[in-house]
Amino acid sequence: MSSGEIRGLTGFRDFFPEELALRRHLFSAWRRVGARYGFTEYDGPPLEALELYTRKSGEEIVAQLYEFEDKGGRAVALRPEMTPTFARMIAARAGGLAKPVRWFSIPQLFRYERPQRGRLREHFQLNMDIVGETNPLADAEIISAGIDALRELGLGAADIVVRISDRRLIGALLDANGISAGDHISVFATLDRLEKEGEDGVRARLAESGVESEAATRLLAAIRLPLEELAAAHEGDEAIAEAACRLSTVFAHLGAAGFTDFVRFDAGLVRGLAYYTGTVFEIWDRRDELRAICGGGRYDDLLKALGGVDLPALGFGMGDVVLTELLRDRELVPAAARRVDDYIVCVSDAERPLALGIARALRDRGRRVLYDLRPRGVGRQFKAAHQAGAGRTVVIGPREAERGVAILRDMASGEEREVVLETLTRQPSGEEREVAPETLTRPPSAAPTRPPSTAAGGADAR
Ligand code: HAM
After folding, report:
1. How many H helices and E strands in the chain?
2. pTM of the full predicted structure?
3. Smallest Cα–Cα separation from 291: which of 332, 333, 324?
4. CA of residue 35 relative to chain centroid, distance
5. Burial of 21 (0-12, 13-18, 19+ CB in 10 A)
6. Pocket test for ligand 1, best of 106, 321, 324 (most atoms within 8 A of CB)
7. CA distance 388 to 363
8. Which residue has its alpha carbon closest to ligand 1 atom 14?
9. Which helix (H) or strand (E) holds 164?
10. Quick one: CA dihedral 325, 58, 302, 67, positive or negative?
11. pLDDT, tens digit, for every residue of 370-409?
């Protein structure tokens, strides 16, 4: 057996407490937005039948699958995306679900990609999808939700842009250039590489797929045009006119909702996944320094292909990796939240039983409570309270124990007050009762508490 250090796998993250705090920050923002848009949360299994992906997701994702044979000889794969699981689950209950269905999920996904900035071998993704609606208002609604999922984290129109197109429009454009329907999916995949490989690279790939050079030139010129100009340049082509009109409606709805500054038409956007049939969109950082934060679109045929029910659907996936980078770049990562509410400081070990009772009572009230797990000087305990980010300390010494009181010190202001111990231990929802001034034997300023900086040596000796 070999010995030595075992490292985590490349492309997989450890979430140390700070990173987990940021992840939770993201997830709770996403859940708030999901709720605001009337979406309910669901989840599925992380392992699925391999065929769920090979049927419809497209070459790129299939090439990145973590696939293997399980012990029963079944071909299975870790989920690389949520949409096929979502489609399968919706199809299984389609009859009983009120339409349109609005569901969201935050799955962890696995793709065997080359790890690089913004791309890992696992990531979390907010998925929001609507089923049962063909109206362009649904397209505008899902895009709005995507924008709001980012606005909720502090990002604005100066930080992000949604690029929107429609595969029906690009499909009609391919038809107009003599590219047969059977070749559309592979040409979409080629056009999706425009950003990465530039015009020359795409031109070479189009030539390989049999697209004539003139058609490629016309196509590449057309996808640079604004929507109105593209439609005008193909006047008389009904399919292009219809698709352009539908897309204009989506933009009009987004404008009415106040999102004009966030969105822009980009005919070159086609998306890599094979199953999209209509509107497609991606959200990018405005400076174009990072990979796409979010991608989605309409997939009206997928439920039929995977579950045999004919229902239109659309949605998006928003990844946590690129988004986390963007939030860090824009300094939108919140400071670590306070970890504990109360730190109980015992002046001597004789107060330990009292401290344990108080801790138990405060925890029962839902307060986050810490105390030292070994006897240490008061100064050290204060230092620990400070490091734990405690909001206040509860100090008990022999004199306090004898009189049945404790000293509460607010760690931010340094203010101290004496309270009756019973009120800390016996009144689950009650306010702490302050000791009336006349019952005090000494003023609060003479309490056995000093700031950690000055108390470290002296107070330890108490
Ligand atoms: P996708 O474009 O493959 O779409 O992924 C959506 C987002 O997930 C990307 O924009 C990116 O932020 C993130 N992402 C993807 N792969 C990785 C990776 N290897 N590492 C880090 N982040 C990654 C889909 O997955 C569709 N199923 C989305 C969808 C839902 N369409 C309709 N409904």
Report:
1. 18, 17
2. 0.87
3. 324
4. 14
5. middle
6. 321
7. 16
8. 319
9. strand 160-166
10. negative
11. 999 999 999 999 999 999 999 999 999 999 999 999 999 9
